Structure formats: structure tokens, C-alpha cells
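Dear support,

I submitted the protein below through the web form. The confirmation email said the job was done, but the results page showed an empty box. After a refresh the structure appeared. I'm attaching both so you can tell me whether what I see now is the final result or a partial one.
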Amino acid sequence: MKTNRRNFIAGAALAGAASILPSSCKTQNSWAGKITDYSLLDEALKLPVLKRELFSHPVIIESVELLLLKDNCLYRVRSTDGAEGLSAGHPFIAQVSYPMVPKVLARHFVGQDARHLDQLIFNAVEKNVKRQGIPLNVHVAGIEFAILDMLGNIADKPAGQLIGDVINPEIHIYLGHHLADFRQKEPEVSIELMHKDVVETQAKAIKLRAGTGDNLGLDRDNAPGRTEKLIRMAREFWGDEMVLAIDGNGSYGVKEAIRLGKILEEYNYDFWEEPVPWDWYEEQKQVERALDIKMAGGEEEIGVHAFRYLIGNQVFQILQPDLFYYGGMIRTMQVANMVKAAGLKITPHISRGGFGFLYMLHMVSVCPSIYKYHEFKMFQTPDANGNIIPIESKNGAFKCENGIIKAPLGAGLGIRIDPDYIKTHKVFKG
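What the results page shows now:
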């Protein structure tokens, strides 16, 4: 086991995880061909997620509606008893695949008992094998968020508490936005832009951006040496107390990812996220074995079997399923259960815009085996058309103090969307 990772994956979970994780001993020449025991992960996957015991009577879903305004998607579900749930779609992916909602997905939910949501979500994803991918999953997630909003309103509980107990009432954030700024502006400029948000949120952790972020593994930077300069300048600017991490978004091949990883280790960076393209599993493992810095990834993954492999073979120490791309909170909780069984950590990924920060807060509040810091891209709620979604919190204004946001406490998603905003959208029937 790599020396500085011993404490990271130590504890009770490690004893059970030992049988499923391949050795990381540097004296081995190859990890390929080893047989991994996935039994603990498979048992974790069997754990139920939705708390069915909160509902003594069936909650039959009467309708699943997609509401459209140009590129923006809202989801509205209603039960036969008149309960309702609403959610906002992904701010820049839902618009390309929205016909899937009435044509493909609604039939998996309408007429069904929402208490069986674990199985309904499984059916919606796994029984659409020819359509699987992020364009499908973002709508599965949107429907799920609306159903959790409805069920939370019925049970008078926050959406997160329908799938777990609150174990993280305070969510420590890392700032993970300014994507284009860090890659296209000079480091001095991008650092100053981020610093303004550091002052506002008092965040104790920041994630920077390396390379061009093209997911092609071509070792390209927008200017020669920019990433190395950024790594050094950020540490000098914020000092040793700031937790710094960096995301490659698949910019590099193995050799360059390792070279930059060594520099990150020199400047005491916390984790190195997706240095090689996301589906280069063998190459990512080569990078992981060559470095001591923690490796993070998984935001583009769409299938449970891929996560099972990544966790069982410790390709990453920090797993990052995206709440939209992976298809919602229930599937993400299943990944979290596997992560816990393996003694690793999880920090769910979320895109900026819409209700991204809200879904993240609900998920992290009840998520086991979480990492200390979680991605935050400010409280703005722009929709796919660039308009701010007007919302009112059911339990006081959202705020970040000392780098911490309190878990939402209002029923359902914990917000009310302005009815006049909803009325600007029309039901799409396909």
C-alpha cells in the first residue's frame, strides 16, 4: 500500500476491503490478470436505498411530465392522491435528448408505486440498453429528483433523508468552478477571480484545472507551461493551509500525467482528478501506481459495473459519480455503499447551474464514506436558457459560512419554484 495512503483508507472498512483490493506494492510489475474478489461490493449493491418504511400506503405515480421553455427542462410528477414534485433538469445536456422523457422513460414510472423507486430507476436505466448513456441518465435523474420531492412532501422529510440518515449535517465545500478561466486566462488572472469567491465563501479547499480539458489525452495546454505555472503560483498565493486539488479532464497521456503528478506531490496537492481520458482504465491504473497523490474520478461513468471495477481495483481513491450523468441519488448511494465496503471515499460531482448545488447538499448530507470536501460552484441557479430559476427556500436562505453549508431541512427538495416561472413552460407530449 502506498505509504501516504495508509491513513486514507485505514479503519474498520479496510479489513473487509483487503480481500477485494489488489495489492499496490510497487515491486509488482503488473496488476493486469489478477482476479479481484467483488463479493463485498456485490453485497453492498444489494442494500435497499429508498426508505420504504416511511410510507404505509402505496404512492401511485399518475403522471410524469416534461415542461419545456426553449432549451430548458423541468420535471413534474403527480400521484393519484394529488401529491406533486418538481425538479429542474441538467442545464446543458437535457436539451439534446428531452424526447426520451415521454417516449422512453415515462412508461417505467406511470402507474407504478413510488415506494419501489429503487427498482423503477433500475428498470429505466438497465432496460434501455440501446439508449444508455449520459443523455438518458440526466432525464432519469430529473424524474427521480421530482419523485423524491413528491415523496419528501408526503413524508414531510428532506429528499436526502428518504435515502439515508443525516450523518453529515454540515457540508465542507471546495470551489470547483472558473473552468475556462483557469485554462484560458493567465494564472495570475484566474487565481484572482477564484480568490474573490474564496473570500465570499471562506472556502478551505479549491480545485484548479489542468491542460485543455479536451478528454483526448494529447498532452496539450492552452499556452506552453501554463499548468505548471498555475500549480506553483496557486500554492504560493494561497499558502500551505489551503487544500488544493486539480482536474485534468482527460488532457494527458500516461507519461505526462505522471510527470505532472510528481510536481503536484512536490507542491502538496490533495488529489489529481482524471488526468487521462475517463475511459482509459488501464492507463489510469498505471498513473495511480506510479504516484503517491490520491487519484479521483468517475464523473462520466454511466454504469454500475464500471464503478464496481474501479472500486474493486482501486483505480481511484476518491470516487466522483455525477448526480445527473449517473442517473440520480439512488444509484449514487449504491456507489457510496460499495465505496464504504472498500474503505475508499466518495465526493459526488455536479454540474454548475440549475439546482446542482441543491442536489449535492441533499446527497452528501446522508452519504456514507464521504470525502472531507465537496464540489461547489456557487448558489446561482441559471437554467438552460440563461435565466435564473426563482426559488424560495423552505428553511431559510442558503449560505456558505467558513466554507460550510448546512444540509437542507425543508420537505422534499426544500425549495419552492416561483409558479409564474413554471407557467412559462409548456408540457411536451412527444
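Response: this is the final, complete result; the empty box was a page-load delay. The chain has 14 helices and 15 strands.
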